[in-house]
Every structure is written in C-alpha cells, then in structure tokens.
Amino acid sequence: MKKCFFVLIVFFLLGAIITSKPKAYADSQQITVNADILNIRSGPGLSYPVLQKGKAGDRFTLLQTKNDWCEVQLSNEKKGWVASWLVSVNSQLKNTAGIVTVNDLNVRTSPELSGTIIQKLQKGEHVQIFETNNEWFKISLKGTTGWVSNKYIQLTHKSSVSSNGEMITISNNGTNLRSQPSIESSIVEIANSGETFSVIEKVNDWYKIKLHEGNTAYVASWVVSSTVKMNRTKSSKVISKGLKGKTIVIDPGHGGRDSGTIGITNTLEKNITLRTAQILADKLRNAGANVFLTRDDDRYVSLPSRVSVSKINHADAFISLHYDSIDDQSITGHTSYYYHSVQKILAQKINRGISNETNIYDRGTRFGNFHVIRENTQPAVLLELGYLSNPLQEIAINSQDYQESITTGIYNGLEEYFR
C-alpha cells in the first residue's frame, strides 16, 4: 500500500513539472534588480530558502521564467530564482534598427530621466538599438552610445538587399513616395500607375528608388510590381483583385480613457491598434478600397458607435483590431474571432492570411462573444494580433517588420475573401 502511495505521489509531482511549461531564454537575455534588497531563492516561490541577496542595479542572465518567477545564473555557477515583479527584463536587440519619430529627442547617460543629456536626435534619424531596459532603448549613433525613451523610436529591424538592376512599376495612381521606409515619414513625390523606377536597395518591405531627377525616395513593396523576384522566405507582395470598390471598416480597439491592455514595458494597446489600423488602411486604400476608421486618433469611442460605423456605411467587412494579454508570459500567438456563423468564413480567410505571411503562432479561428461582432449585421471579425504580456512578442509588436507583416496578412486574407 505504501509503495503504491509513493508511486502515485511521484507520478503527481512529475505531472506538475511537465504541465508547468517554464519558458527558456537565450543567454543574451538579462534582468536588472529594481528592489533595494532582492532575495534570491532556491526555487520559484516565497517558501524556498534564500541562497543570497541582490541589490538595486545588479544584473543577472535570465535562464527561464515560471509563473511569476525568473531563474537566473549566479556568479558562483549556481542558479537561483527571483520574483519577476522586483526585476526588469533587458533584451539584447542585435542588428535592430530604429527611426526617431520626434525632434530634439534626448540621449541620456542612463535609462532614467535623471540621466545626463549627452546629445539630441532629430525626427527621421536612424539609430542602432542593442539593449532595452523597461521603457528605454540603448542606442548607438555616430560613435556615441546612450539611452532614449522607446516611445519615440520606431523599430525597423533593418535588413537591406542590393537590387542588382531591379526595376519596379507603380500599380496605383496617387502612390506616395516617402523620405524614409515608413508610412509616417514625409511624402517627397506622388507617382501614378505605370511609372517605373530603378531600385537602389530593398529595406524590409520598402524599395529605395532613384527618382527621375536623380534624388531618392522610398516606396512600399505592396503597391508596386517588380521585374526581378526577390529571394524572400515570406512574400509581402499583395494584389488588388477583388478589393477595389469594397467598403472596409477598421476598428482600432480601445482609445482615450480606455487604454486596453498594457504591455510589460508599458506599451498601450490603444496606441498599437491605431498604428496597425493606419498601416492597414493605407494598403487597402492603395488597392482601391473605401476605408473608414472608427477612430483615427486617441479618443474614446463606445462599442455601439463602432458598430454604427459598420452599419451606416454598409461595410463589406468590419475588422476590429486588438492585442491580447494573459498572466502566463510565455503565451504568444494570434487569434481570429467570429460570433455569427456567416462571419466564420471571413475570420478563417484572414486568420489563414496572417499565418501564411508571418511566423506568429496560430491560435486558430474561434467563436467569441464580443459586442462589436455580436451586434454587427455586416461581415465582422475581431482579431487578437499578439500578446503584449509576452516580453519578446511585445518588442516585436512595436517593430515595423511586425506591423507590415501582420497588416499584409490581413490584406491578403481580405483579398482572398473577396476573390
């Protein structure tokens, strides 16, 4: 009897270990102690004995997370556990580029407002990012390193590809040619359908082109056709068949006093949904669709008002954009929700479009009891496009690459739906 009892206990403990699913990290992932005194324990919980103590500012290599605890590497080659709410995660962002989005951005000696200002950056300048600390990026520019607020840096994960004589042709009238590879940069010229340009290089989903008078500009790859096929694992090129003349309502979730979920480094869901909506709207309009946004700035819009925009404009598709959050920081992925059975095919097409375009974990198409799709008489879906509660996915979500890929996936899903 005792033997059977012992076997059952062992089985139970093994099952608990297996189902806890700790999240492992690369050696470059670091944590910084925020508390004045930090207890480093032998296991992930307050009941475990204290191995040693840390102090504010100490750094350790992060090995894995489990629930609300982080396992770290200690200097004596031992390992210990610390409470995640008493530390901050510092990610090493190798080969990550960013664009400054404001003028006179302060570069400081340390990741805090009390840090000495050593330089000022101007809007449009490119920087290299190689570390994060809460709401700060450590950057390198013109031989100088320092810390800047991550609120004013747009990640690009720049990767340039030489064109080798490539030519592109503009697909739509009124296409914007911009000063930088971002839809937020200034417009330097307007091009029309049929115009051709020489490509200097490709930067992510943008072409750097040579204008007819010799100057340069950037144009988005999804609004042009190319005479040379680029060697890419995933193709962001989209076609406009089926979208022209369609009415699409894009609903950026939350806004104003409703911030939505808040990420590990304080990314506000309301801000990132608006940014996603604006990028998606730009792509759809270039394809000839009639696009309406339920909000185009940071303001509160009631759920019934959002549905009204869909009904009044007789939307061919209503797309509500959101980012998710959960207590388990290891969870990632995207999910597409429908309420009425007639909405399911739209949700499936968009979900497949996102999965085909990105490497984000696919959590599937599901039934969801959400007001904006439940009360909507038009084809409508609600999309959860990633988890701000996951530290690494939050960084990705804020990047230009992620935003371009996710919106291209939605675009392709809509195009397939209307085909």
From TrEMBL:
<dbReference type="InterPro" id="IPR002508">
    <property type="entry name" value="MurNAc-LAA_cat"/>
</dbReference>
<protein>
    <submittedName>
        <fullName>N-acetylmuramoyl-L-alanine amidase</fullName>
    </submittedName>
</protein>
<dbReference type="Pfam" id="PF08239">
    <property type="entry name" value="SH3_3"/>
</dbReference>
<keyword id="KW-0961">Cell wall biogenesis/degradation</keyword>
<feature type="domain" description="SH3b">
    <location>
        <begin position="26"/>
        <end position="90"/>
    </location>
</feature>
<dbReference type="InterPro" id="IPR036028">
    <property type="entry name" value="SH3-like_dom_sf"/>
</dbReference>
<keyword id="KW-0378">Hydrolase</keyword>
<dbReference type="InterPro" id="IPR017293">
    <property type="entry name" value="N-acetylmuramoyl-L-ala_amidase"/>
</dbReference>
<dbReference type="InterPro" id="IPR003646">
    <property type="entry name" value="SH3-like_bac-type"/>
</dbReference>
<dbReference type="InterPro" id="IPR050695">
    <property type="entry name" value="N-acetylmuramoyl_amidase_3"/>
</dbReference>
<dbReference type="Pfam" id="PF01520">
    <property type="entry name" value="Amidase_3"/>
</dbReference>
<feature type="domain" description="SH3b">
    <location>
        <begin position="95"/>
        <end position="157"/>
    </location>
</feature>
<feature type="domain" description="SH3b">
    <location>
        <begin position="165"/>
        <end position="228"/>
    </location>
</feature>
